[in-house]
Amino acid sequence: MVESVLDDLKVDYEDTIAQFQKELAKIRTGRANVAMLDGIRVEYYGQMTPLNQVATLRVPEPRMITIQPWEQSTIPDIEKAIIKSDLGLNPSNDGTMIRVPIPALSGERREELVRVAGKLAEDHRITIRNHRRESNDLVKMAEKESEITEDDMHRLFSDIDGLTDRYIAKIDELLERKETEIREV
Known about the structure:
This protein has four helices and six strands, in the order αββββαββαα.
């Protein structure tokens, strides 16, 4: 019981961190990153399909993403999907490949993106705290049902708090890195 609570909590925390990293990758910076296009779906044979499943995406230079569709007929659909996205990108094609230049961000837009990243970080901190509360409730219930001693309960609370603090610090570190990346000119 004791180890399973901590193990389960660690898995939940790792999942939360992974989700946070995915969300951060979608936030546009002044630098090209294929993860920016992760949320884009393209109509492909009547199905809405993720862009990376209909084309090869590359970053040949810091401010350019190239998209090489597997079928040339999908080029107009890919362009439309990128334009419709809220990324503010303007793709161009040469008939065989789509080039997506990444424009520099204005200072105002950078600060807006920093706020978005901060909000995401806070949402994920809340998720971690909710997992902590659930684990603490399980420990309290185990003590109440005499599965563990009161000393074990307090030791577990301490272990849970230590684990929680480490994962909150990871979120803060990831946020700080992203903010630096966004503010780079």
